[in-house]
Structures are given as C-alpha cells and as structure tokens.
Amino acid sequence: MPRPPKDPPYTVGYGKPPVHARFRPGQSGNPKGRKKQSRNLSTEVREALSAGIVINDGGRKKRISTQRGGILMLIQKALKGDLRALSLLLDLAGRYNDDPPPPSTDEPLSADEEAILSAYVADRLADGSLPRPNGDNGQAPPSKHTGIVGKRRARRPG
Asked: What is the DSSP string of 8-44?
C-alpha cells in the first residue's frame, strides 16, 4: 500500500478521498458485480425459440431456429394424419396469416345482379340440374341418420 505524501497536494473532502482509502488501479469497489436479475418467462421462451438447431434436410445439414423446427414438425405430423396437430396448425394459420379478410357478403344485391341470378336459377330448374326448393324433385329427402354413433360405427345386423 502506497504511503501518503506528507503534504497532500489537495485537501481531503467530498469526492476527494484520502490516498490510503482509494481503490487500487485495476480493482473496483464491487469485484463480484451487480447480481443478475432473474428473467421472466417471456424472455426465456423468446430465447429458447430463437436458439439454433441443426436439421438434416435431404441429406444436407441446415441450421434453423427452434421455433421453425417446431413448426416443421407440426406440419409433418398434420400431414401424417395427426388430427391434434392439424387442428393446432390451422389455428396458428388463422391467427397469424396476413391475408386480408374475405369480402363481406352482407351487401344487398343490385337489381341487375338479382335479375341475372333469377334467370340462372330458372334455367337450372328448367333443365333439371337443380333440385326444386321445396324438395319437390321426385326424390325422397336424404336421411339424417348416417349409421354412426359417437366415434364408433353402428353395428349392422347380419
């Protein structure tokens, strides 16, 4: 420890500590540093999803984010027939798809459009390609019973 000079060149006071109480060069007053705060869940999730992973894509190694890898796995499962994965994938697509919403059909038709539509329906009814609106097409109405009860098929007698 250096000895203070007999005659200090300055007076000791606020912001001017005595020489023996000063920090040594290269040494701070808090050697361990400030404690790191715990991070919240959103920070942890964001970092985990942005971390990189290596996948094998057609024989080539490719580095992608964990988030992208999870989405690719979800797509693979949905394509293999996993209904839960398909449901989740469709939900994500609906939530994050940037496509504009479909045009509204709430607007009433103009007189011209109404006339065109009426003429088309009349033509289809005349040639028999459209069933009659009151079920008057000579066929029995379709049965509402499909033979499926819950998730099991109904047993057929026989």
From this structure: -SS--BTTB--GGGSPPTT--S-TT-PPPPPPPHHHH
